[in-house]
Amino acid sequence: YPSEFLMQKITEDNQVPVHLHVSVSLQYVAGLKGRALVEFFHSNIAEVENEELRHLMWSSVLFYKTPNVEVMACVLLSTKAIYFLLDDSFIHADEHQSDFWNKENSDCENSSFHLSCCFVLKLNDLQSVNVGLFDQYFRITGHSADHIVTCLTRDSYNTHTFIQQLMAVLSLLARTPSPEPVDKDFYSEFGSKNTGKMENYELIHSSRVKFIYPNEEEIGDLAFLVAEMDGLTNLPSLNILLYVLAFQVNHVEGSAQNTSSLQPKTLILTSSDLFLFDEDYISYPLPDFAKEPPKRDKYQLADGRRIRDLDRVLMGYQTYPQALTFVFDDVQNQDLMQNLTLDHFGE
Fold first, then answer.
1. Is 266 exposed, middle or buried, given 0-12, 13-18 or 19+ CB atoms closer than 10 A?
2. Which of 79, 84, 106, 135 has the fewest beta carbons closer than 10 A?
3. Mean of the per-residue pLDDT values for the chain?
4. Residues 6 or more apart from 111 whose CB is under 8 A from it?
5. Domain segments of the chain: what residues?
6. In which band, very low, low, confident or very high, does the pLDDT at 335 lie, cut at 50, 70 and 90?
7. 8 Å CB contact between 304 and 274
8. Alpha helix ranges (H) inside 139-236
9. CA dist 323 to 154, 253, 308, 314, Å?
10. Roughly how many angstroms between the first and final C-alpha of the chain, as a whole number?
11. 137 CB contacts (<8 Å, ≥6 apart)?
12. By the 8 A CB rule, do 169 and 123 touch?
């Protein structure tokens, strides 16, 4: 162990997306090849001796406890667990994480060591996997709020490959069979249908882990939301042509070199409009233990423009990821109208 084919595959997958910045510790991991990568896994990450590394993927991740902090991670799938090797900047990103991440090695910060946190989700604790719309992301759910992670692959191929590898590894697990179903009484039988939760397509794996895929209702809800934004009354005339997780580029001027920050956005193209949404990728559908709905809606409109106002599209010539600049000719008139409204008609 391991086979040459597997080592070659893991080496090929060990590439950080060029548009995302990672810390020095993760750059070191990204520089490892073949056997060195497998040895690094066994000596630094693996929890038991007979564990096998099966798949490696670089992805942005979100945690249920910190839904606003997207962090880069190296995701390692073994025959025992899923490991998320995290960028060390994540520890300092949010003060409210002290109960979630216990930072014990703060005395090492000024030394030559580069620390990374590793979040471990044992396969035996895995309960369900929710696949997002058009395979742009997936959410892994364990038995508590600490064990819910969303991987924002922004790539249907990476999502599909990881899910296939995960199913293959789960097939190796020996789990006790499910208990016999209990006869339901009248109230529980009819009460459970009024929870308000949307029924999605479910595939229950032999390991009893649920793989949940979106159904037509999710697209229908999204189309209805977009139609409301657009003021359309004739819903059948609205078509969602494209749904993609992207980044909005905000140029930060005045710094040493004009850098650009990337804001995660959901881009939705319809037959008449282009929308940017701030989407909650981690809170929906609600986990079973959630006592109350999330603080924000699943989709929050960030920007929306009419296609007929689109003047031109500028395309960069670099390889993936492709940068697109949309130039609209309605901005000036729109601002003028808003200012007039504010000045002359009060709030």
1. buried
2. 106
3. 81
4. none
5. 4-92+113-173, 238-328
6. very low
7. yes
8. 156-170, 186-191, 216-230
9. 15, 19, 21, 8
10. 70
11. 150, 151, 152, 153, 154, 159, 245, 281
12. yes
pLDDT digits (tens, 9 = 90+) for 289-311: 888 888 889 999 999 999 999 99
Q: Identify which of 210, 279, 299 has the alpha carbon closest to the alpha carbon of residue 62.
A: 279
251: which 2 tokens?
């140029």
Measured from the Cβ of residue 58, the count of other Cβ atoms closer than 10 Å reads 22
pLDDT tens digits, 135-171: 999 999 999 999 999 999 999 999 999 999 999 999 9
Peptide bond into 2 cis (omega under 30): yes
Among candidate residues 87, 4, 89, 80, the one with its CA nearest the CA of residue 38: 4
Is-contact 115 97, C-beta < 8 A? Answer: no
3-state secondary structure at position 27: helix
SS3 label, residue 127: coil
Long-range contacts of 65-68 (CB under 8 A, 24+ apart): 65/97, 65/100, 65/145, 65/146, 66/93, 66/94, 66/96, 66/97, 66/100, 67/280, 67/282, 67/283, 67/294, 68/94
198 within 8 A of 217, measured Cβ to Cβ: yes
* Token pair listed for 135: 């395979």
CATH class, domain 4-92+113-173, is mainly beta
Q: Give the span between the Cα atoms of 33 and 217, in whole angstroms.
A: 44
* Token digits of residue 281: 């990728």
β-strands 210-213, 128-131: how paired?
parallel
CA 275 to chain centroid, in Å, comes to: 19
Q: Under a CB-based contact definition with an 8 Å cutoff, are residues 132 and 152 in contact?
A: no
Contact 154, 246 (CB under 8 A): yes
Give yes or no for a contact between 122 and 51, defined as CB atoms under 8 angstroms apart. no
Q: Is 117 helix (H, G, I), strand (E, B) or coil?
A: strand
8 Å CB contact between 117 and 87: no
Report d(CA 91, CA 148) in Å as an integer. 17
Q: What angle do CA 316, 319, 321 make, to 5 degrees?
A: 80
Q: How far apart are CA 122 and CA 259, in angstroms?
A: 39
